[in-house]
Amino acid sequence: MAFRRLPISTCVLEVERKFRSLAVRELTQYGGLPHFKSLQRLPDQIIRDSYYDKSNILSSVGAWIRNRDGEWQAKIRKGGNFTNSRFEELSSIEDIAAYIKRTTGIDAGEAIDFGLQATATFSTRRETWVADDEFHVVLDTMDFGHQVGEIELQKTLVGEDGGVPTEQQKQNEMQIMDDRIVSFMETYSWAFSPGDPKGKLTAYFERFQR
């Protein structure tokens, strides 16, 4: 008798907490106390993003559709607030199109930008470090002069018995991830400037839609 292995359903969860800027001139492993257990700087990136929406329908429900360097992505908020964000990420064209159809009623393909309109386009210089082997420390500087950083954790969540991960599973896992980020930022508070951060889209719209 042959047994067929069922495909395992997964989803990618991302939890992030934003910070205004770095509190040190240069982020290094031994730049403050306590020291990072480890710190690896990744190559800098130049990222070009175009964000899409339709009459603010998507942003009003906490969804961001963007084309990043030619690749479509959807980030769907699963809780938290601006500073403390929890997302499920979609990268499959089919999943993105299905989500847009469910949310807006628009049934359109990638070739015509899913029937959406570009609302913001800008380039970002991204500096990234991996601290303590898993926490991504990201500092973004946009081409219109704004800067904001974030601490990120990502996890691929596997559904039980090959099924789709439940919303409760997602929420439980994201709470654990967020608690770990809070602890990380408190431990290394010397690295991050106090004050309220402002997101890149908020800063963009403030500047260009006056």
TrEMBL record:
Alphabetical GO biological process terms: thiamine diphosphate metabolic process; thiamine metabolic process
Alphabetized GO MF terms: magnesium ion binding; thiamine triphosphate phosphatase activity
PANTHER family named among the record's database cross-references: THIAMINE-TRIPHOSPHATASE
Protein name from the UniProt record: Uncharacterized protein
Originating organism: Trichoderma asperellum (strain ATCC 204424 / CBS 433.97 / NBRC 101777)
